[in-house]
Hints:
The chain is mainly alpha-helical. Helix content is 56%, strand content 9%. Strands 1-2 form a two-stranded antiparallel ribbon. The N and C termini lie close together (8 Å).
Amino acid sequence: MPIIVNLDVMMAKRKMSLNELSEKVDLTLANLSILKTGKAKAIRFSTLEAICKVLNCQPGDILEYRED
């Protein structure tokens, strides 16, 4: 898929664990893990907004487009 999820990169930059982010964005660990590993097929704007707010970043820091 040409959309790359860089959630793990942003979490590492902010030194935040998946558990901590899960609690702060009120998302299950399983769903956040699916997103982090790039297995998600979609993301709600409200979820992206919550993640960006907690990680203090822009949506483009989380999602990236790369041609195949």
